[in-house]
Specification:
By secondary structure, the chain is an alpha+beta fold. The chain has four helices and ten strands; from the N terminus they run βββαβαβββββαβα.
């Protein structure tokens, strides 16, 4: 059975339609109104082997905050819904990803308990049309809406574009690992009996 979710969310600030398939092939159709953010979500999709469609009409005349944060809320919800009862998943995933000058670490626990540790400082305020401070906001929203323990750490690197891209790709690889089914896992991987 395909693990997928389709979510629409409309507020005074954003109108979002998103479909996520965890068992995809890396296909994407993304239009957020922020070109660099589209590029990051496309990288997430491709490197995690997810299928993602994401159409956002946000109040970009204000700034990108609501668009990026709300995208994170909806993506986290889509991950949570697509996983269902989490039966048979590996639960944990991690990746240390190199990209040119950058080395990025991402670790995930799909425990149902939200937490974000974000250890990265960008050397510039903007990459293309994306405010770099919004990258943390996005991952905070994903972690809390998705109910995941998420750690992101820049080990080293100087180029902001590479830093952001490595972060989204490392997140994709770690999430792909965490949502993967393992035949050794009976029910859920927890002594509590639920995640």
């Amino acid at each position: 059975m395909e693990r997928a979710a389709s979510i629409t969310r409309k507020t005074k600030e954003t109108d979002i339609a998103m479909t996520l398939c965890l068992d995809g092939g890396g296909k994407s159709d993304i239009a957020t109104g922020i070109g660099f953010f589209d590029h990051m979500l496309e990288g997430f999709t491709r490197h995690g082997f997810f299928d993602l469609t994401c159409q956002i009409d946000g109040d970009l005349q204000v700034d990108g905050h609501h668009t990026v944060e709300d995208a994170g809320i909806v993506l986290g919800e889509a991950i949570r819904q697509a996983l269902g009862d989490k039966r048979g998943i590996r639960r944990y995933g991690s990746c240390i990803l190199p990209m040119d000058d950058v080395l990025m670490l991402c670790a995930i626990d799909l425990s149902g308990r939200p937490y974000l540790h974000f250890d990265a400082a960008f050397p510039v305020e903007k990459i293309g049309g994306l405010d770099t401070e919004l990258i943390r906001e996005f991952f905070y929203a994903v972690s809390y809406s998705g109910g995941m323990n998420l750690h992101l750490k820049l080990i080293h690197g100087d180029n902001a574009h590479h830093m952001a891209e490595a972060m989204f790709k490392a997140f994709a690889k770690a999430l792909d690992q965490a949502v993967s089914l393992d035949p050794r896992v009976v029910d859920v991987l927890s002594t509590k009996g639920s995640l």
